[in-house]
């Protein structure tokens, strides 16, 4: 940097004059534009890395507010730490910025592949996720102090003006990166390939800016090293995109423990259907497991007990000519509903059209759900279940005798709205006078706080409740990290449900003249009511949209 006296630097009103600095290969105005363009690109890449970590945390560690908050908090803290550490690099700002961008491209670009690999082969993702958030945050935080020094190398100006220019380019780049991630990178490339290519762009742009504008600040040896390192990183990241397919296949086999029949990505969620040996019912047919974002949603070895326990008690407690099913894109709860001859019409609302398409297209899954989605009595709609219930009065539809809520549960759902007081109030509004509501509410033994918060929230919407819990997964169920393992607390893992109706909780039983359940009998339901009561947690407040009470 050219040294000037204080009097020479001071301009009108105390501002430094716009003086070009010698040694640049381009005019000062062009150089300044190129630096700001590089800031724009690097900011877009940095935000993509952040979104990759948030998305991977949601998919692998659970889409809870807690996980998202931890990732973002650690990253913001690390950015401040990186800004402090960068103070030591300002004397060699060009070399420091080149090194930071090379390391950021390598770590950020490879983060999605590394996190998925840790999840697949080592069964853990939270600790590596925090580690990546810390490292990437430090590197992003180190960028701005170094860029501030470099842009002043091009043309001296007051600090406020330089900061304004840098932050403007940074924020606009972040906007572009934030929009490109869900609308371009995810649908066209996926998380792993998208992150790898963004890392390659990051390395190329950072290296080009330093060697193109500030090569005079580096020795011949430093220039050669910077070029070789960034070239190697760029080639490595681009080459990584060619092995993403085999890598994902190997990782899926490690995650799901079976042959992957189908894998699709819709609305940013990964849906995988796995074939994993004969089911426990002795039919000799191959069993299947349905995973969403790496978490088990359905296993054919024991799904019948779950769906019979969810559906048949609600169907037994009164009329059931009109039924509404929320969730259940796999058609298995719908299968149980249609076993009742008195059912005249069913509306199924599933948030993810990909699950419905898979349930219709796959032969094994279609045989398991008895092609219930194609029954003439069934109307299938895809969309947000909360918004669907909210618009129900304007739709002209008649109230429903039974509403079945077959969603993942508030502890594992990325969207807790369907388990809020407002949601159950909307569902109660759509019930007929003698209508019943059946809700999957999570395991009362393993997570009593969540289960009884759901029950308290249903009651807060003006409905009487009957809680019950049936036996959990069978030993040897579908493998993979999404499989329900015995909880560390030593409590048994069960499926918990809440049956509700206006005024008072409906009786828990099975229809005497209805279809005969194959997995859940009257004695099972009597034990189910006692089992839920044994783990009761009293005095819990309801969960609302503004005060969610579920622990992530």
Automatic annotation (TrEMBL):
Enzyme class: transferase
PABS domain span: 244-502
Topology within the bilayer: Multi-pass membrane protein
Residues that bind spermidine: 307, 330
Residue spans crossing the bilayer: 33-56, 68-86, 98-123, 129-151, 163-186, 192-214, 226-247
Catalytic reaction equation(s): S-adenosyl 3-(methylsulfanyl)propylamine + putrescine = S-methyl-5'-thioadenosine + spermidine + H(+)
Keywords: Cell membrane, Membrane, Polyamine biosynthesis, Spermidine biosynthesis, Transferase, Transmembrane, Transmembrane helix
Protein location: Cell membrane
Principal localisation: membrane
Pfam families, sorted: Spermine_synth (PF01564)
SUPFAM superfamilies per UniProt: MFS general substrate transporter (SSF103473), S-adenosyl-L-methionine-dependent methyltransferases (SSF53335)
Residues that hold S-methyl-5'-thioadenosine according to the record: 269, 350, 384-385, 416
EC assignment: 2.5.1.16
Listed pathway(s): Amine and polyamine biosynthesis; spermidine biosynthesis; spermidine from putrescine: step 1/1
Catalytic site: 406 (proton acceptor)
Superkingdom per UniProt: Bacteria
Family matches, as InterPro entries: MFS_trans_sf (IPR036259), PABS (IPR030374), SAM-dependent_MTases_sf (IPR029063), Spermi_synthase (IPR001045)
CDD domains: AdoMet_MTases
Region Disordered, annotated ranges: 503-552
Family: Belongs to the spermidine/spermine synthase family.
Function of the molecule: Catalyzes the irreversible transfer of a propylamine group from the amino donor S-adenosylmethioninamine (decarboxy-AdoMet) to putrescine (1,4-diaminobutane) to yield spermidine.
Assembly with partners or alone: Homodimer or homotetramer.
Designated name of the protein: Polyamine aminopropyltransferase
Organism name: Streptomyces glaucosporus
């Amino acid at each position: 940097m050219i040294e000037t006296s204080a009097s020479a630097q001071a301009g009108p009103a105390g501002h430094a004059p716009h003086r070009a600095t010698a040694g640049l290969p381009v005019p000062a105005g062009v150089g300044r534009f190129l630096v700001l363009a590089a800031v724009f690109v690097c900011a877009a890449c940095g935000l993509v890395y952040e979104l990759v970590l948030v998305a991977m945390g949601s998919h692998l560690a659970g889409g809870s507010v807690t996980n998202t908050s931890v990732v973002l908090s650690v990253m913001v803290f690390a950015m401040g730490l990186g800004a402090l550490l960068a103070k030591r690099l300002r004397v060699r700002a060009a070399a420091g910025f080149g090194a930071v961008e090379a390391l950021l491209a390598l770590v950020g670009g490879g983060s999605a592949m590394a996190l998925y690999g840790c999840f697949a082969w080592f069964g853990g993702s939270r600790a590596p996720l925090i580690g990546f958030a810390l490292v990437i945050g430090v590197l992003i935080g180190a960028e701005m102090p170094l860029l501030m020094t470099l842009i002043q190398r091009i043309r001296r100006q007051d600090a406020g003006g330089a900061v304004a220019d840098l932050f403007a380019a940074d924020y606009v780049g972040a906007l572009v990166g934030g929009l490109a991630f869900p609308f371009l990178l995810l649908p066209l490339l996926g998380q792993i390939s998208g992150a790898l290519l963004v890392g390659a762009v990051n390395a190329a742009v950072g290296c080009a800016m330093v060697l193109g504008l500030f090569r005079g600040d580096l020795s011949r040896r430093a220039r050669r090293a910077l070029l070789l390192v960034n070239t190697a990183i760029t080639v490595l990241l681009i080459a990584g995109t060619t092995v993403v397919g085999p890598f994902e296949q190997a990782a899926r086999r490690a995650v799901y423990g079976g042959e992957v029949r189908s894998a699709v990505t819709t609305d940013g969620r990964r849906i995988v259907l796995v074939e994993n040996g004969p089911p426990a019912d002795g039919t000799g047919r191959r069993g299947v497991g349905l995973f969403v974002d790496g978490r088990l949603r359905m296993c054919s070895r024991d799904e019948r007990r779950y769906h019979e326990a969810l559906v048949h008690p609600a169907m037994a407690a009164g009329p059931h000519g009109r039924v509404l099913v929320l969730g259940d894109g796999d058609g298995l709860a719908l299968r149980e509903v249609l076993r009742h001859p008195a059912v005249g019409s069913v509306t199924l609302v599933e948030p993810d059209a990909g699950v419905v398409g898979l349930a219709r297209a796959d032969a094994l899954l279609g045989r398991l759900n008895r092609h219930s989605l194609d029954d003439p009595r069934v109307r299938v709609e895809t969309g947000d279940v909360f918004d669907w219930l909210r618009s129900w009065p304007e739709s002209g539809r008649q109230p429903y005798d039974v509403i079945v809520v077959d969603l993942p549960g508030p502890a594992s759902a990325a969207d807790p709205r369907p388990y809020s007081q407002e949601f159950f109030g909307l569902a109660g509004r759509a019930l007929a006078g003698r209508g019943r509501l059946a809700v999957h509410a999570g395991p009362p033994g393993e997570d009593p706080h969540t289960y009884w918060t759901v029950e308290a929230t249903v009651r807060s919407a003006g409905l009487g409740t009957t809680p019950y819990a049936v036996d959990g997964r069978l030993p040897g169920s579908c493998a993979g990290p999404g499989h329900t393992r015995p909880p560390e607390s030593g409590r048994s893992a069960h499926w918990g449900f809440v049956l509700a109706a206006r005024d008072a909780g409906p009786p828990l039983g099975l229809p005497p003249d209805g279809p005969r359940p194959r997995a859940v009998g009257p004695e099972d339901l009597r034990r189910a009511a006692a089992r839920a009561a044994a783990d009761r947690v009293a005095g819990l407040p309801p969960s609302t949209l503004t005060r969610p009470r579920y622990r992530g």
